[in-house]
Batch of 4 targets.
Target 1
Amino acid sequence: MGEIKTILDVDGGIGQVAVERALAEVRAGRPLIIKAGRSHLLMICVEALDERHIAKLEALAKRRARLLLPAPRLRRMGLERTRPGAIALPSIDLKRVETLALDVSARIDAPVASLGRLDLAALELASLALVLPAVIALPVSVRDVEGEGLVRVEAAAIEGYRRLRLHDLHIVGRAPVPLEGAPETEFVIFRGGEGLRDQVAIMVGKPDLSQPVTVRLHSACLTGDLFGSLKCDCGDQLRHTAQHMAQNGGGILLYLDQEGRGNGLSNKMRAYKLQSQGFDTYDADEVLGFGHDQRGFDFAAEMLKQLGVTKVQVMTNNPVKIGALSEAGLEVVSDRRILGRTTDQNVRYLASKRDRAGHFIEMDDLTVQGGKDER
């Protein structure tokens, strides 16, 4: 057993398992312990907090509890800051916590302290779990939580998790799946990356891998891809890409599990609610504590490499995707725009992507086609 443990320690296996268990606890709304040396931090995400939890936390906190918030949320509350911070909670008042974490009109009501290593690991765990990036944290001793059965995870394991998971990406299945407009298509399923979520490479036609391959990195959009939401152009981009590849020598469409620009589906719905109140897509995300884009594309480049791709022609409007593939070692030979229809409901969203994130979208592309759609 000692030999097995040593092998697992070398490749990060034990640490990865601990992080994955911790992620399950976060998503289930349970508290857990992050540790480094003799220091221990108890954390619970704000979205899971209720009066039942508060009674137990107050007994442990001894007026030392803090609310950890990312920099975008602090900026929305009037504090010019580029780093996350902590607000002291002499008592854990649920209404105050929810106001500071979510209220659109909230303002900073106390000094904001810098975060330590364990605090930063707690926010990283919330990010990996795709929950609201707001955490209640309090220092504890081993004796404080003895017998509570809390999952424990090393800060170092959380810090290295994204990098280690990238190298574990591997193919777990593949099969032909004919599509409308692209009948010669194979789905290749990869597992690994953050949270062990499955990622899909859709091989359209028979692309010549010795030549530059047409590729698109498409982040999953449940509302647009599946239900035809008028708030975005994602579904149109997805289908137009597959058809273009089928008619032009084939290609590879990567369908990536990165809903809501990497914020997760529940946070995407929170952002949509804010958009219905007048916020644009980026301001809505900032209210929730997110930056402009939480996605990473290094694992997408790894998928392409495992499929034998070295040179790409990218179908995208997003300069970040182009840069990410190039930085990952793929030769980007060219890039091509891919546009969907514009509607009264998505024209502001598309303009925001152009003006605030530098997407390659021309003014003429934002002319609403066909007026309002009453669906």
Target 2
Amino acid sequence: MKTKKSYYIIIFLIILIACGPSHAGDLELRGQLSSLGLGAYQSNEWTKLIGLRYIPQLTTTEYLADEIFIDTEFSLNAFLNYDIDETNENIKLYRIKIRLATAQSETRLGLQKINFGPAFILRPLRWFDRLDPRDPLGLTEGVYALSFKYSFLNNSQIWIWGLYGNKETKGYDILPSVKTKPEFGGRYQFPVFEGESAFSFHTRTVNASLFEYRESKVSLDGRWDIQVGLWFESVIQKNDSELLPFEWNNMAMLGTDYTFDVGNGLHVIGEHMYSSASKEFLGTDFEVNVSALMINYPYTLMDSFMGMMFFTWDNRQLYKFIQWQRAYDDFLISLNLFHYPESNIPTLNNNNSAPAQGYGFQVTVIYNH
């Protein structure tokens, strides 16, 4: 592991030196330094955690013509977490990609972020990322991919991607992909009335340890702004293996938002998601219903408040989250308060903002340079 960490640091320094004074106009070095303190109380015990994280980012840009350019990004995720029982520290690649952009197209190669869909909280189309509105850092893992996006003059878009070399789980995945077998998919987005809709698909080979199987999923989503915002996401997934208890998984989400004329504007978002698993197409052998409500209020130019609630209809549990943020030019202070009952629902557990259960708090200080 130490060899890999040193390897990442050496690459970072080589790029910085090679693109130094002679390419000063094309090179940009930015970074995000953050510290956190977390405490959670559950089952008469306190969980305490303090952490430090630094994400340096190097970007270069080279213009080939007026509307054609190539840019690169190389960034690391270095973190140190300490709790009562152990210390966890690591340096990982966060992004390493090259992009060719024109007036209507974009081609990206490398470790990159791929995300799409109109939903904010409960996201059936969270196929490749784990973005969470509760996380003040906005972190998510990347995937190794080659992606191409083309925008037509009628505001429609086509997006094609191929992934390879990804051995970790992503999105809602419970099992990882086979690292040595490619996965691919695409998305076509097109205008519909005053909004837009899109079809997406993706297929991969799943590594189930003792065996492998083909997983394929298709989706339909859309968004419209008609007095209020309205959107939906729906996904049908087929697991091609007789060794699994369920062959079909389905997810459907409906959401809406509106900004009320209260003070500086009270923005309210509501979403409901239904998911099921079955041996038959559109069956309901197992199902889960989750509702989410998010309220945002900009109190001043520097201070903002956000509240979020999840409710699981099957076991009737309520999850509560409150966040206060104060933003300066380069600094951001975030205070989170939460109450998370125990849950096996990925939407409620896979987040960076509060990796704990019970009653708790988290203080995060972020410096961007």
Target 3
Amino acid sequence: MEFFDTHAHLADERFSPDRAEVIRRAREAGVTRIAEIADGPIEWELALKLCRQAPDGVAFSCALGLHPYHAADFSKEILADLKSHAKLPEVVAVGEIGLDYAKGSAPREVQVPVFEKLLDAARALDKPAVIHCREAFPEILAALRNFYPSRPETGRFWGVVHCFTGNAEQALELAELGFALGVDGPVTYPKNDGLRAAFKAAGPSVLVLETDSPFLPPQSSRGQRNEPRAIPEIAAKLADTLGLSLDEVARVTTENALALFSQRRRI
């Protein structure tokens, strides 16, 4: 049984003391593919280095973007640099990008146009978008409807809404627009019945597994640093939610992730 962690931040300094051990534990847990997410220019080279130095047994790829936390730093130079770096073979997506009205320090009138410019770049590069959405679903959905007015003609996804935390209606709309939904540690939290209902409504064909390591640990390790080895726990809860076997969840979410990052789609 093999799993794909589609969203991790292993270049984070919190992994500096034992990064090799973290990757070894991931491999032992059956996580054989990891997408490293770089949230800003400082992290882009770290992500590329991690992809190039990954040990045997775990295949790394990466996404390069500008997190909404850094929206105020956006410039034409950063955009040009992103477009240049995103053409490298290790880079499978643009992200994470998006809107954060909970913790983002940049005002909404700054975040929205930056997000739109980055979505436009993802389209121009023919790369899927890895989208961060926190307390901003109306604006995120409005932007996606504008930039992706129809479903992909080839491939299956325009991108993924990372760590989806919305309701069933929002899940269904995103799926209809052609976006995958990221399933993270919060699906294991006892009080998140509404989130589990949203994933059940959307169905397994649009779901991918994530850890967001070192953030968002599952129920068994809340309060601790998260690692990709947590993927089987997340998958087991998703299997229970969907009424599927763990093997089936591993298979379908990996297929979805490969489609998300490997298929090229054009509008």
Target 4
Amino acid sequence: MSLSFSIEASDGKARAGQVKTAHGIFRTPAFMPVGTGGTVKAMTPDSLAATGSDIILANTYHLMLRPGAEIVRSLGGLGKMMGWPGPILTDSGGFQIMSLAKLRKLTDGGVTFKSHIDGTEHFLSPEKSIGIQETLNATISMVLDECTAYPCSKEEAEKSMKLSMGWSAQSKDAFNPRPGFGLFGIVQGGIHFDLRRESATFLEEQKFDGYAIGGLAVGEGSEILHEVAGFTAGLLPCDKPRYLMGVGRPEDLVQAVSVGCDMFDCVLPTRSGRTGQAFTHRGTVNIRNSRHRSDARPLDELCDCPTCLSYTRGYLHHLVRSGEILGSMLMTWHNIHYYQGLMASIRRHILGGEFSRFEASFRELYLEGDIEPLT
């Protein structure tokens, strides 16, 4: 349709490329910080750009409720409203069909939600979801789907997948193609390979701009996640971007790239930053731990983000334990910088034909864990 995806280099199944959009280019593999309600928590657009972020994610359901799609349009669209000049991908609301199961009623025609904010009822159909995403001026829209819960029976997974495929076709029909804008289909089917194959085949026949792997990172565990993601990625067209939704931890990102996934999103770096957990080259660090109280070292000695260049672990410990807003800001900035640095390093090693060597060295250092301070 309207997005341009080019692969610059491959190393095994890992790919490095770029996607040209109406709102600029983003490089792949790409990690999208999550800005659910039109803001990436504790970050400004300038600080996001400084981390190397090319594209961010926002959520149709949440923006539909507050401030409302028409308000966003009146303020110039989502990007202009929030001061972000680059591409934005909007989730369709499908994840909330699972996460807000107690507040919704599901039918073949769509889903009726009771707002988690004030209890008012809102109906979301495939056509309405696509219309809202266009009103928001999303660069990449997602089809409405039902994110299959885990665990569930194969019969439930099949019923959910077939519902999602029907909604995908309706979403495709409702989408208004414009130069530089695109629509992604979402593969469902739970943990069942035959259902995943059926879903991927149906979506490929629909000719989407990109293809997402949905219904994972919902509690199934790393081994199943990696197995199903790898199988599904191998079913998808080679000439379109592949988006593994809701993933994840740094080690999961590296694994997913190795099987051919190109795009990722997850709340982990931002949510963890606000609760005092940092992702570093040597694994995770809980800055709330008392051992950091008087530690004069940076959070990550191999990191060049503003947090690590200017502040000590001891100060970060003080900020987070005191509940200071600056603590959330500095920890989140570091985490997103780390994630984008990981993506940049992955791209560089794919382009250099050394991804396998990078993967091995990454895992060795990351699994080594944090170094205790000298006493």
